[in-house]
From TrEMBL:
Keywords: Antiport, Cell membrane, Glycoprotein, Ion transport, Membrane, Phosphoprotein, Sodium, Sodium transport, Transmembrane, Transmembrane helix, Transport. It is a multi-pass membrane protein. Residues 577-636 form the Sodium/hydrogen exchanger regulatory region domain. InterPro entries: Cation/H_exchanger_CPA1 (IPR018422), Cation/H_exchanger_TM (IPR006153), NaH_exchanger (IPR004709), NHE-1-like (IPR001970), NHE_CaM-bd (IPR032103). GO terms for molecular function: potassium:proton antiporter activity; sodium:proton antiporter activity. Its main location: membrane. Belongs to the monovalent cation:proton antiporter 1 (CPA1) transporter (TC 2.A.36) family. Residues 79-472 form the Cation/H+ exchanger transmembrane domain. This is Sodium/hydrogen exchanger. The chain crosses the membrane at residues 74-91, 97-117, 129-146, 158-181, 188-206, 226-246, 258-288, 308-331, 352-374, 380-406, 418-437, 449-472. It is found in: Basolateral cell membrane. One of its GO terms (biological process) is regulation of intracellular pH.
Amino acid sequence: EFKDVFLEFEDDFSVPVGSDGSPVYDGVTQTEIPRAPHTPRHAHPEGPGGPHTHSRAFPVLTFQFETVRRPFEISLWILLASLLKLGFHVIPHFSSVVPESCVLIVVGLLVGALIKLLGETLPVLDTQLFFLVLLPPIILDAGYFLPIRSFSENMGTILVFAVMGTVWNSFFMGVVLYGVCVVEGSELAGVGLLACLLFSSIASAVDPVAVLAVFEEIHIHELLHILVFGESLLNDAVTVVLYHLFEEFATLGEVTVIDVFLGVLCFFVVALGGILVGTVFGLLAAFTSRFTSHTRVIEPLFVFLYSYMAYLSAEVFHLSGIMALIACGVVMRPYVEANISHKSYTTIKYFLKMWSSVSETLIFIFLGASTVAGPHAWNWTFVIATIILCLVSRVFGVVGLTYILNKFRMVKITGKDQFILAYGGLRGAIAFSLAFLLSSKHFPMKNMFLTAIITVVFFTVFVQGMTIRPLVDLLAVKKKKQTKFTINEEIHTEFLQHVLGGIEAVCGHYGHHHWRDKLDRFNKDYLKRWLIAGARSQEPQLISFYNKLELQQALLSWPNCFCISTDLFTLNFSAASQKRSRTMTKISKEREEEIRKILRGNLQKTRQRLRSYSRHKLVLEGEEDSWTEAKLWRQKVEIGRRVSLRINISIEDYIPLLQITAQRY
């Protein structure tokens, strides 16, 4: 039986035989297969050192650059950017003559030329890299530390420059440039009206990265800085809408009235949608920071993640990611800073500054390297006409809009300020990235557009950026104050805001002070209770903080300062307290900044919800008297309650207050 089974198994797995009688495996005979020399199982191949040595030595040091090539290059670029920024500020008097952005572009040109000579692949400012990695930290830093008061007071002017100014520049520049192309003919004959409007929408937008890089070095006054910087931030929505609108029209080839209406509607959807997305994520970040008291280490992480998620979520639906980041930073900052620790606040502040500074440096270096990479299509007529039209349209737009705005502004925009506004409209990497996004199939003139955009960027950054500082000094434009406001100045500024709000309420005028007061009431009654943890959401934070501070100082100087006689309430000073030891404990700069923040956020709100005057609804004399008596009775009850609470306090609780009073007087 075993023999029969074995023969059956042999028949099933028989191997075909070739013509020479050797077995065939996968169509190849055994004689054709290369054979290794026969080596016994336990024998070792002989090497140069004898019969028991290995054929290959153990690798002590190996070189595997390709496995770490990408992170190594990224780290090298960041290191180069940091060293350049360090060297730029170390060289004396160099930063006062040449803007930092100009130096970085020149370095990018040199690095790109060197890489091209070596035959390596040139790094290009890729659109995905720019919009998803390099741009968000710069916008988040600008939005998180945005001066809210100056921005809100000039919101109308900023919106007019950002919306109306950008639309005017795009259409004026596009129509005139189309006329130049028609007159020139030959090479420019194939450039149509929609293509010119698309190009002008890219070239007319003021770039926030370039504006920040130049205007932070010249230190102009707050009004001028917030107008230029605010316009560069808010015109993103207009630029995105016009870009996609003209790109779609140029692809379709025809435009209807419905398309124009949908384009206008798209602007509001892009702008308001971006603000809504940023507000939602800002509130989520503030609400999450309520519960981080036990895990202080991850507090800064929530700020960065929620902000980046707001930007990405807006980009998913083709909304304005820049508007989303600004709204997220503005909404979450007051609540997050009330919840997180002071160390976390310092971490957020310096990490954002570092991140945005490195991103800005890399953008300008990559811009220079991308210029070397090409490809380029140079046309003298088109390039010169683009530069001239950028300047002319900017001047006409600023002068015309300012003439209208000054009729409604209390603080007028002077002629010098108008010149700096027109001269400071710098272009940057956003225009380059949008031009890089164009399809070569639908826009055969893409390389010419890209070359013209690079020329405009270089002209605005080098020529206008290098000459704006001497022009500011020559025109004697008002500079920004280098010193901070004192606490006294901040208190009086806040007091004047309340006075102006009261005057608006008396006059029945609903100005921005009125709406600011409404927003403060809504914030205090609802948002703070939900977004700020514990007792920090209540108004007496200022009082409790100073009680705590005075008690701490009193306990530190208790043994040497005084002794108290509880029977006679007499205060006998020791000899030490009559000398220099009477000075208060010094407060560090971080502690002083924290005190300033609490003072600004907890100033007493004096306005109350009273009856508004109306000659149709007059209060009777008896009702007015009864209402006044009821109010006085409530105040009397409240005062009595406070007095009864203070009577229960023992004499030991007054010792720190007496000690502080003795030290001060």
